[in-house]
Amino acid sequence: MTKERLYLYDTTLRDGQQTQGVQFSTAEKVQIAQALDSLGLDYIEGGWPGANPTDSAFFEDAPKTSACMTAFGMTKRAGRSAENDDVLAAVMNAGTPAVCLVGKSHDYHVTQALGVTLEENTENVRASVAHIVAQGREALFDAEHFFDGYKDNPGYAVEVCRAALDAGARWVVLCDTNGGALPAEVGRIVSEVIAAGLPGDRLGIHTHNDTENAVASSLAAVDAGARQIQGTLNGLGERCGNANLTALIPTLMLKEPYASRYEIGVKPEALAGLTRISRMLDDILNRVPSKQSAYVGASAFAHKAGLHASAILKDPTTYEHIDPARVGNARIIPMSNQAGQSNLRKRLTDAGLSVEAGDPALGRILERIKLREAEGYSYDTAQASFELLARDELGQLPEFFEVKRYKVTVERRKNKYNKMVSLSEAVVVVKVDGEKKLSVSESLDESGSDRGPVNALAKALAKDLGQYSQILSDMRLVDFKVRITQGGTEAVTRVIIDSEDGQGRRWSTVGVSANIIDASFEALLDAIQWKLVSDCAPQSAAAE
Fold it and tell me: Measuring CA to CA, which residue among 504, 508, 505 is closest to residue 494?
């Protein structure tokens, strides 16, 4: 059976940049474009040349890609020709092989927002697309507000799209700009548009996620006959985001009927890099990846309940809809007070700790976890702290150093510019290699900004740990989460620290105390301890 071709169009660099708080540099746009190209996408929309300096600079030195690099702009304005429209000229001057223009397809927006007649708008669309085609470029037309426009005036919405196709557009993309259309009506309207004479193999779909239906609506459009899908990496986009390609791509490749019926440009080996690329984007944005993201989230294949974990050990398909390795992800068996011995043994095995079924240590570890979680600890998200607890109970936790005492001070004062600034200073005394060492560190970074008391503690603690300092040199704290676990006078603070090292490993540790600094220091100690266990334990065992 010959598969039909679906085309994937990425708009992360343009529509994704509309996300609140997101602003790519030119270098970051190049890096993301290269990552997207490695996936095997068909189109990469680089931005709107002329709209801002970053996008203009990107197109001046855009990377060479197998994907069709596309510049985005808008149709010509009324009262001037396409050849003499300076905004359209800036888009054409980017020199990309494809150009995507957005235009109105909702009659209300034409008369009220643009203030022109319906006939003028249709002609603007036709003339703009014809101008692109005449220049030897591939033309795409984004029919803005199409679904709302179709519901109000189906005849005019189709008329605008037909004008673009007749002028030579390769694709007409039906846009759910406000994100309010539901999958059933998207499917119905796309079917009606095709029945009206617009061929499905020249129709695309562009959805927003304002009802959490962007992926479902995109699939509904494919079911109805559309053959191009627009989306963004990690679902970036204005308001609630766009259709998420990290969910769409594996669904198209691994789920029926799509896997058997359609072919996309992404190969299985590229799919295996999807999780890495997703997290690379979050790293560029300095954001913590969403653990609940489908396919690529850290919790996408996490099995917390003891019953689930027991079944997973026998057959992963009992509670997993795909093999996580196919998208570059991994299975996690978290530890919590809901855990049974199946969870525990699997997690111990993953940590390189072999414990036989029925070993009394298993019961002791579970009991210790449950008691500590009653105190406010959470080993569900702090896997590294769990491993250290288990090693301690099994007598397999080396003692690399001992903290004798620590002190932190926070000072608020005026600087030489008469501006109030804060400064944190930490003193840590440790015993390592049989010798006491005292280290002092401030919290100022390279720019002179205060990074806080926990940063000062981390720097002081790692400053002089003898033979272990070099091992810790590539370790850094990447996230810090605080939660008050009880109320009133008995309130305690839980701190979760995420750490990362030069090998790309990422681990989480937990600390609990009535004092936030003390809780932070406990989590920090665990983070350092786990790093040393991971890098030194085999050598230490061999030395013994």
Answer: 508
Q: CA-to-CA distance for 199 and 389, rounded, in angstroms?
A: 62
Please enumerate in sequence order all residues whose Cβ is within 8 A of that of 245, keeping only pairs 6 or more positions apart, or say none: 8, 10, 12, 41, 231, 232, 233, 235
Numbers of helices and strands, H then E, in the chain:
19, 16
Read off the tokens for 261: 């019926």
Cα–Cα distance measured from residue 515 to residue 495, given in angstroms and rounded to the nearest whole number: 10
Q: pLDDT tens across 211-255, in order?
A: 999 999 999 999 999 999 999 999 999 999 999 999 999 999 999
**Alpha-carbon span 16 to 377, nearest angstrom:** 37
Let me know how long the chain is.
544
Angstrom distance (rounded) from CA 190 to CA 501: 49
By three-state DSSP, how is residue 346 classified?
Answer: helix
What number of CA atoms fall less than 13 Å from residue 293's CA on the CB side?
26
| Strand duo 420-432 + 402-414: pairing | antiparallel
Q: Where are the beta strands (DSSP E) in 208-344?
A: 228-231, 262-263
| pLDDT tens, position by position, 133-162 | 999 999 999 999 999 999 999 999 999 999
Three-state SS for 263?
strand
3-state secondary structure of 223: helix
Angstrom distance (rounded) from CA 396 to CA 538: 11
At which residue do the structure tokens 């769990």 appear?
Answer: 386
Q: What angle do CA 16, 18, 24 make, to 5 degrees?
A: 70
Alpha helical stretches, state H, 331-409: 341-350, 360-374, 383-393
**299 Rama class: left (phi>0) / alpha (psi -120 to 50) / beta:** alpha
Give the H/E segment covering residue 430.
Answer: strand 420-432
Strand locations in 454-505 (E): 476-484, 493-500
According to DSSP, residue 184 is labeled H
CB 263 within 8 A of CB 4: yes
Question: CA-to-CA distance for 46 and 33, rounded, in angstroms?
Answer: 8
Question: Please, what is the angle between helix 341-350 and helix 383-393, to 10°?
Answer: 100
Q: Render 3-43 in DSSP notation, one character per residue.
A: PEE-EEEE-TTTTGGGSTT----HHHHHHHHHHHHHHT-SE
Report which residue type is found at 402.
Answer: E
Q: How far apart are CA 304 and CA 357, in angstroms?
A: 19
Please write the tens of the pLDDT for every residue from 301-354. Answer: 887 665 555 666 667 778 789 999 999 998 776 655 445 666 677 778 877 888
What angle (nearest 5°) sits at the alpha carbon of residue 206, between those of residues 205 and 211? 115
Residue 267: exposure state from Cβ atoms within 10 A (0-12, 13-18, ≥19): exposed
Tokens of 170: 């390769």
